UniProtKB/TrEMBL annotation:
SUPFAM superfamilies: (Trans)glycosidases, Galactose mutarotase-like, Glycosyl hydrolase domain
Domain Glycosyl hydrolase family 31 C-terminal, chain residue ranges per copy: 647-733
Keyword NADP carried by entry: no
Source organism of this protein record: Massilia arenae
Protein's recorded name: Alpha-glucosidase
Gene Ontology BP annotations: carbohydrate metabolic process
């Protein structure tokens, strides 16, 4: 049971990367600040890439398109830098997965020379110096071909001062009209031009800048509202409108600064930087190249597409009562998701789980009979887990095992690092410890796969590894902080493989980093507010899927209706302040029916949030949309295989399919399902129509069969009654025609 309460959750600040600091000419040996002095020139081949050096800097191209520049330094300016930094990192929140990072640069080497080039077979080493006041260090920049379309670069600092320099900088040229996409699951903006993005795994916040609410939340709780750039699953990776793409292999904290119209600045919190420059002719080719490193997600089991995964809680009797209701309503069920299977505690946030991953048979008696009933309905059981362990007596059996064996993240004094969550503390499993990994995998295999007979679970959290923690074998927590979500996904995946259940069981995660797609089976977008806005509401569910899809998260979905809700108790009765109503719930269902997974959540405060069974009309609407979701199963299966083969996301920004159309770049609230369907959900309160952009070609409106000639691309407005979200498919699409045939056969057309 995820927890979002009125406590500090997130406040992240950072110092924007600047190379333009006043330095004395003498100190720079007659060079200006951030000036490049290139003493060598020439064109060098590294694999299929050409690297051209001149006194203006470096330009990189590919043999397949030699006239196209994939990466270029700013003419006459340094493209590398280094510094000694002192970071003040404050971690807080509930749990502690939120950060304020202030970085003070003590010495900066921002002027660069290129002194020597050392070519070899498919490699090139660049040597030179970085200088500044009180700062003079050699560097080695090595290029090698990591594949036919991937140029890897490795920066290392050399010399007596190198050990003190713990920041590295990379700068390259851009243009005012170049747009930047990706950076992991960015929730507010798809286009990051003009933004500065902290690539740090963290709680995404509550409100995330929503005017009024975020400020009030911060005031009452000392922070925690978050910002437009906070996310639990970032990635140091971008793909641009000019089909340039770069990513870092590093897991340390980095900052990508796109604020300047004609350059991009990258700051990395270590002195050694490794990354890759990619070549591709299309956005999907570039995603293929990126996911060759990040990993690709396998197809979901067939059962996930048979209907909705519906959240219930409250014990066995309540679960059976809900099942009765769903059966009568004719809702096709893929699964029942019961997150409170380990039992509940009452905290100042309301009901929360005991994080002791054993079935509470007093709360859920006759569990096996419930699983058997689901099986007869053709549905599966899903549960919940996270990497924390409860420490309270009577609910601490797993904590005691892990503590005695040394499997927990520790403080400097060697005691378990207890992390605050509402009004209780919890310990965090040390996933850098191979023995701890084996232990938690056995918990998953014995308790989730074994005792509960689960076919899936929410694998929550992963953002809270402290920067000052002590890990097994001397592992660096600063490098492990962003890596922890990758390993949490890997542990779950390994448990499935060891139990022989890969391909039949899913674990869905909210935290992630660069290589999470290669480890995870499914991701969701965290805890949206139950609102309509683009800061933390329904609109962020679309943007998050679009941005995440660029960075390899090919299977993404959201909590239907959102999660966070808040109310006030007046005369003993809960009064909603922020909570979903019937309209928001129904529109969110329509959105999710045309994504990879349709899953509900009762929310943080179920009593004030509209639910699937709140009235008969809602049940009927949900049954209809669940059947439409099921009808699309044939198409999703093909898309999931494509994702497994190439990394192409199921939910796609129109730019991925129409990269030469600049009108697509700024789109945020419409998406394509695969290459055939254009979907524009209602994301405005009270709206009965949607205005959307259709790129070049002829499009067929799903519910009327009416063709729309878009010419070179055109806007149109479409009426959107409940139950018929705005969907177009390409004229001549076999998938579109098959969907229409299926909908007609099932009486849904």
């Amino acid at each position: 049971m995820r927890t979002r309460i009125l406590r500090p959750v997130l406040a992240l600040t950072f110092l924007a990367l600047t190379f333009l600091l006043p330095l004395s000419a003498a100190a720079m040996q007659a060079q200006s600040p951030d000036t490049l002095a290139a003493r060598v020139d020439g064109v060098y081949r590294v694999g299929a890439f050409s690297l051209s050096f001149s006194n203006n800097g470096l330009r990189i191209s590919h043999a397949a398109e030699p006239a196209r520049i994939l990466w270029a330094s700013v003419p006459g300016r340094a493209f590398l830098g280094a510094a000694q930094g002192q970071a003040d990192i404050r971690q807080f929140g509930t749990p502690d997965g939120s950060y304020r990072i202030d970085d003070r640069l003590l010495a900066q080497c921002l002027s660069q020379s290129i002194d020597a080039l050392e070519p070899a077979t498919d490699t090139l080493v660049v040597r030179g110096r970085l200088r500044g006041p009180g700062c003079d260090v050699g560097y080695r920049l090595a290029f090698d071909a990591a594949g036919a379309n991937q140029l890897r670069f490795r920066l290392q600092l050399d010399g007596p001062q190198a050990a003190q320099l713990n920041r590295s900088f990379l700068r390259h040229a851009s243009s005012a009209d170049e747009r930047y996409f990706g950076l992991g699951q960015q929730l507010t903006w798809f286009d990051q031009k003009g933004k500065t993005i902290p690539v740090l795994v963290q709680e995404h916040g509550v409100g995330r800048g929503l005017p009024g609410f975020t400020q009030l939340f911060d005031l009452l709780e000392g922070g925690g509202g978050g910002s437009e750039v906070s996310t639990g699953a970032p990635a140091p990776h971008y793909l641009s409108s000019k089909l340039n793409s770069l990513f870092l292999e590093n897991t340390e904290y980095s900052i990508f600064n796109f604020q300047h119209p004609e350059r991009v600045d990258i700051k990395l919190f270590t002195g050694a930087m490794t990354g890759r420059i990619l070549y591709g002719r299309t956005p999907l080719e570039l995603i293929r190249e990126y996911t060759a490193y990040a990993g690709r997600m396998p197809p979901l089991p067939d059962w996930v597409g048979r209907g909705a995964i519906v959240s219930v809680q409250g014990g066995t009797d309540e679960a059976n009562k809900k099942l009765d209701t769903f059966e009568r309503a004719g809702i096709p069920l893929a699964g029942l998701w019961i997150q409170d299977w380990p039992g509940v505690r009452i905290t100042n946030a309301g009901k929360q789980l005991w994080w002791n991953w054993e079935l509470d048979e007093s709360y859920y008696p006759r569990w096996d009979a419930l699983v058997d009933r689901l099986a007869r309905l053709g549905a599966r059981m899903l549960v919940y887990i996270n990497p924390f362990l409860s420490t309270e007596a009577g609910h601490d059996s797993l904590y005691q095992q892990a503590r005695q064996a040394g499997y927990l993240v520790k403080k400097q004094d060697g005691t378990p690092y207890l992390i605050r969550n509402t009004n209780f503390d919890a310990a965090l499993v040390d996933l850098s410890n191979p023995e701890a990994r084996t232990w938690i995998k056995n918990v998953i295999k014995n308790e989730l796969l074994g005792r509960t007979r689960a076919s899936g679970w929410m694998a929550d959290f992963g953002e809270a590894l402290p920067f000052d923690a002590v890990l097994a074998n001397g592992n660096d927590p600063a490098a492990w902080h962003n890596r922890y979500p990758e390993e949490w996904a890997a542990v779950n995946r390994e448990a499935l493989a060891e139990a022989g259940r890969e391909g039949d069981v899913i674990a869905f995660h909210r935290s992630g980093f660069t290589r999470s797609p290669g480890q995870g089976t499914l991701f969701w977008l965290g805890d949206q507010l139950q609102t309509w806005d683009g800061y933390d509401g329904i609109r962020t569910a679309i943007v998050g899927m679009l941005s995440g899809g660029v960075s390899g998260f090919s299977l993404l979905h959201s909590d239907t209706g959102g999660y966070n809700a808040f109310g006030l108790t007046v005369l003993g009765r809960q009064v909603p302040v922020i909570a979903r109503n019937k309209e928001l719930w129904m529109r969110w269902v329509e959105l999710n029916a045309f994504t990879g997974v349709l899953r509900t959540h009762e929310g943080l405060n179920p009593a004030i949030s509209w639910q699937v069974d709140s009235d008969a009309e809602t049940l009927t609407h949900f049954a209809r949309m669940s059947k439409i979701f099921r009808a699309l199963g044939f198409y999703r299966q093909g898309l999931m295989q494509q994702a497994a083969d190439s990394g192409a996301p199921l939910v796609r920004h129109p730019f991925l399919e129409f990269p030469s159309d600049p009108a697509t770049y700024g789109l945020r609230y419409q998406y394509m399902l695969g290459s055939d369907f254009m979907v524009a959900p209602v994301v405005t309160r009270g709206a009965q129509s949607v205005r959307l952009y259709l790129p070049a070609g002829t499009w067929i409106e799903l519910w009327t069969g009416r063709p729309f000639e878009a010419g070179a691309g055109a806007w149109t407005e479409v009426a959107t009654p409940f139950g018929k979200p705005t969907v177009f498919y390409k004229a001549g699409s076999a998938a579109g025609e098959r969907l229409v045939t299926t909908l007609k056969a099932e009486g849904l057309y």
